[in-house]
Design brief:
alpha+beta, Alpha-Beta Plaits, seven-stranded antiparallel β-sheet
């Protein structure tokens, strides 16, 4: 719906305006032989060449780690995850910042657990909807499960536990925390 000014009523974005967002791909572990293929897959989604500064992953011999920032249309993170999760031997996280037309997202991928998706707020913290919380409470009431376990599932605690050792960049490198909110 728009008014006479040509501004979309839903998000205040001018009709026909191109919305751009940005994010980061954190490749926590990738077999050395796949590095170039991962860059090509990412480049295919982004439509621009990608070069990742790879470094050895100290937690898993023969694996590399790296990160790359990206810009693109809203939904790019999900397109990247669709391409990358099928490789099966990667541990990675993909983020997309909130923008004028969509909420932010964070995806965590592990060979053992598959893909976890969360909506993220402006500060990178996970946002859990009222409906998902009500469903978690109902599951606990019905099954006798722990609410703490249900909430841990909503927050992707299993993925955080698996990926945490891989998030450290090693001696002398910057450490990034995806799941910590600074107040």
């Amino acid at each position: 719906m728009s008014d006479r000014s040509g501004v979309s009523g839903m998000h205040g974005v001018p009709q026909g305006a191109r919305v751009i967002t940005r994010g980061v791909i954190f490749v926590h572990s990738c077999p050395r032989a796949l590095c170039a293929h991962i860059e090509w897959a990412i480049a295919d989604v982004l439509g621009t060449p990608v070069s990742i500064d790879w470094s050895p992953q100290p937690v898993l011999a023969g694996n590399m780690r790296g990160e790359v920032s990206w810009t693109g249309a809203p939904g790019t993170a999900s397109r990247l995850v669709s391409i990358l999760h099928g490789w099966g031997r990667l541990r990675l996280e993909v983020t997309e910042e909130p923008n004028a037309v969509s909420e932010g997202e964070r995806y965590s991928i592990s060979p053992a657990l598959g893909v976890f998706r969360a909506v993220i707020g402006a500060h990178g913290d996970i946002q859990v909807s009222e409906e998902r919380l009500r469903a978690a409470i109902a599951r606990c009431a019905q099954s006798g499960a722990s609410l703490e376990d249900e909430i841990a599932g909503l927050l992707g605690a299993a993925w955080d536990s698996e990926l945490e050792p891989f998030r450290y960049a090693g001696e002398g490198a910057e450490v990034r925390w995806l799941h910590q909110v600074v107040s």
